Amino acid sequence: MRSGGLCLRRLAPWEPWRDLEAMTEADRVIDLTDQVCPMTFVRTRLALDGLSTGQTLMILLKGEEPRTRVPRTVRELGHTVLSGTTDTAGVLHLLVRCT
Fold first, then answer.
1. What is the average pLDDT value for the chain, to the nearest integer?
2. What are the helix (H) ranges across the chain?
3. CA 75 to CA 7: how far, in whole Å?
4. Is the N or the C terminus of the chain less surrounded, counting Cβ atoms within 10 Å?
5. Residue 35 lies in a domain
6. H or E segment and range at residue 85
């Protein structure tokens, strides 16, 4: 489409999950920042069940209860928490390896 000598093109809709996957080395990313317990654990468990041994999952969590319960429960299930960092918005980026 041309407008006054400029070439304009439509951009694809923004898909934040694609940006998250590109920024990490995780095999899968789930954003649970709008979820509360127990749904944070339920969705984490479903995501882990869908992964093969050795694959990684990046879990984005917000809120005090999910930030403490999800990592503990992941460890209790036998998976490995590789890292946990908090960004400036207070979101915990939890990287888990499926075992």
1. 81
2. 16-23, 39-49, 64-76
3. 53
4. N
5. yes
6. strand 80-86
Distance CA 70, CA 79 (A): 11
Residue 12 has pLDDT above 50, yes or no: no
Give whole-number Cα distances, 2 to 5, 7, 24, 87, in Å.
Answer: 6, 5, 37, 41
Is residue 15 predicted with pLDDT exceeding 70?
no
Judge whether 49 lies within some domain.
yes
**pLDDT-based confidence at residue 35 (cuts at 50, 70, 90):** confident
CB 55 within 8 A of CB 69: no
CATH code for position 39: 3.30.110.40
Total tally of structural domains belonging to the chain: 1
**Residue 90 belongs to what domain range?**
15-97
Alpha-carbon distance 95 to 81, whole Å? 6
The reported pLDDT for the residue numbered 24 is 55
Q: Which positions are annotated as active-site residues?
A: 37
